[in-house]
Each structure stands twice: as structure tokens, then as C-alpha cells.
């Protein structure tokens, strides 16, 4: 693998994060105006937290099933 290519990709990903607010022309008003987006975001964060906690559990019967169900929901 080419390390220079990886370094360039990493730098470009950071540069894009700084450039996007300057060139972004969307009429998006913010999360407070879109309640369904708030619900979906909170659901996503909750599932992500539960998956993180399930990943710390031992590989045993109830935890494996819970992890699989949460993965399908995710």
C-alpha cells in the first residue's frame, strides 16, 4: 500500500470539513424545526450506545442475541 496516498486522503478529509461550511448553500433551518429528525437522531444514538455496551459483554447466550437484534435495528 502507498502511504503517501493514505496521508493525502487523510489531509483531504480534514480539509473538506473546513471547506464545507464556506461553500454550503442549503436552506436547512436546524434540527429544532424537524421533530422527526430529532426522534431518529435520538434513536440512532440510543442504539449506538446499546451496541457499545453489548460489545463489552462476554460472548454468552443472551448477550449474543441482544447484539444481533441491535445490529439488525442499526
From TrEMBL:
Residues 1-74 form the Cytochrome b/b6 C-terminal region profile domain. Its main location: mitochondrion. Coiled coil: none annotated. The chain crosses the membrane at residues 6-23, 43-66. PROSITE patterns: CYTB_CTER (PS51003). GO terms for molecular function: electron transfer activity; metal ion binding; oxidoreductase activity. Pfam families: Cytochrom_B_C (PF00032). GO terms for cellular component: mitochondrial inner membrane. It is a multi-pass membrane protein. Keywords: Electron transport, Heme, Iron, Membrane, Metal-binding, Mitochondrion, Mitochondrion inner membrane, Respiratory chain, Transmembrane, Transmembrane helix, Transport. It is found in: Mitochondrion inner membrane. The main subunits of complex b-c1 are: cytochrome b, cytochrome c1 and the Rieske protein. This is Cytochrome b. It comes from Psychoda grisescens.
Amino acid at each position: 500500500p502507498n502511504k503517501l496516498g493514505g496521508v493525502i486522503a487523510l489531509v483531504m478529509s480534514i480539509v473538506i470539513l473546513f471547506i464545507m461550511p464556506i461553500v454550503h448553500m442549503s436552506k436547512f433551518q436546524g434540527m429544532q424545526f424537524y421533530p422527526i429528525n430529532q426522534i431518529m437522531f435520538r434513536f440512532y444514538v440510543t442504539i449506538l450506545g446499546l451496541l457499545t455496551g453489548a460489545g463489552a459483554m462476554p460472548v454468552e447466550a443472551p448477550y449474543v442475541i441482544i447484539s444481533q437484534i441491535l445490529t439488525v435495528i442499526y
